[in-house]
Design brief:
Structural class: alpha/beta
Largest sheet: 10 strands, mixed
Strand content: 15-25%
Shape: globular
Radius of gyration: 20 Å
Number of helices: 10
Mean pLDDT: 90
Low-confidence stretches: 1-5, 7-23
Distance between the termini: 7 Å
Order of helices and strands: EHEHEHEHEEHEHEHEEEHEHHEE
Length: 314
């Protein structure tokens, strides 16, 4: 059996960006506080990053809110927080708004690649799906399991998202459906954990969530998933076959064989260079933060990777 491992290579040094106002005196709490609004989709990996950061900076104060992406970005635009984790960068309009209203420079950088995972009930044998079939399902054009190629399950398809304002919904609507309205038998469970629980108890459901929520924490190779659900394999081809369908593991994210991939960004309006907010902003793209992504998530780091094949005896 061949096992595929991903190893990070050397990371280029980062130049710290100094911003207007960086030399202004700060009170101790402001200097030590990491105030962050994070898309709930990324609670598992960002939680690990924050814990590791606090272990390094023991006097850091973590003020983190996990909520749907739209709400997280709104907090940033209202200047209620100075950092956010999202799956898109600032728009030019948002940059101008922040500069005009707050006299702050909006900064943004990518730090990982994420995949959207489709999960089904452990009793559901049907795990092959094409992107075109997914598009038809979430726009209401394909409603029954019997309409899916190779499927043997009977009955209507239920689609379960985490939240109507989540990055997951936006990705499916904008990137998969070209901006078309989502229709059909769609539900929102109000959190990624609730999506998993719903699918566990609903044989006809397809859950759509960020892949890191179903990582198998007992598997250091990041090649398997939470055994309480089944993870679908997706294909970009019109005809789905086992050899052209791929699961959202790190390797197939790296090769882009898995089709539902997006980039993950940290956005900041923090004007100070001598704060833990500033440190955390760069921590995610520096060696320590990238190694956590590599070893402790199903996400792919942005640093170059080497793919090694290792023979393992059964």
């Amino acid at each position: 059996m061949r096992t595929i491992h991903l190893l990070t290579t050397a990371i280029a040094g980062l130049m710290l960006i100094s911003c207007a106002g960086g030399s202004k005196p700060l009170d101790e709490r402001t200097m030590h506080t990491v105030d962050l609004a994070c898309d709930e989709t990324f609670r598992p990996i960002i939680g690990q990053e924050l814990r590791a950061f606090q272990a390094k900076y023991t006097d850091a104060i973590l003020d983190t809110t996990f909520l749907p992406e739209t709400d997280a970005l709104n907090l940033l635009l209202k200047d209620s927080v100075t950092m956010a984790i999202a799956t898109r960068p600032f728009t030019e309009k948002e940059k101008k708004f922040i500069l005009d209203k707050y006299r702050l420079v909006a900064q943004c950088q990518p730090f990982a690649y994420d995949a959207i995972a489709l999960i089904v009930n452990p009793q559901n044998p049907d795990t092959l799906l094409s992107v075109n079939e997914l598009r038809k399902i979430v726009t209401g054009k394909l409603t029954r399991w019997s309409d899916i190629q190779h499927a043997t399950t009977k009955g209507n398809i239920e689609v379960v998202f985490d939240d109507e304002n989540s990055s997951t919904v936006r990705y499916i609507r904008d990137s998969i459906c070209g901006g078309a309205a989502l229709k059909g038998n769609l539900k929102t469970a109000h959190s990624s954990r609730n999506v998993i629980d719903y699918v566990r108890h609903s044989r006809n459901a397809i859950g759509i969530i960020g892949v890191d929520w179903i990582r198998n924490i007992k598997d250091s190779t990041n090649l398997t998933f939470d055994q309480s659900v089944r993870v679908m394999s997706l294909s970009n081809s019109a005809v789905t076959e086992p050899d052209n369908c791929f699961q959202p593991v790190q390797y197939y994210i790296a090769t882009a064989d898995y089709p539902l991939i997006r980039q993950l960004y940290i956005l900041s309006t923090n004007p100070y260079t001598d704060t833990y907010n500033h440190n955390f902003y760069f921590y995610l793209t520096d060696t320590e933060g990238q190694l956590i992504i590599t070893k402790s998530s199903q996400l792919l780091p942005i640093v170059p990777v080497q793919v090694k094949q290792v023979d393992v005896n059964d």
